[in-house]
Design brief:
The chain is α+β, with helices and mostly antiparallel strands. The protein has one helix and four strands; from the N terminus they run E-E-H-E-E. It has a four-stranded antiparallel sheet, covered by helices on one side. Strand 1 and strand 2 form a beta hairpin.
Length: 70
Amino acid sequence: SWGSVGAALKREGRLHLEVANTGHWREPGGHHGIGLESVRSRLRLLHGSNADLRMENPDGLVRIHIELPA
């Protein structure tokens, strides 16, 4: 079974975005896995050190959290 959860929250001048899916994080290999690195690069270009992208794998969910200036 699978599922996804998306959330957005504006707090203290920051925008918090989160997407979660069931499963376990797998490290990319070969030519795979450029998507998250591309997102990180774009966030750096647009917001410098004011943006953050984090990945977590708690409780059987893979969570991607992005925080940036609102």
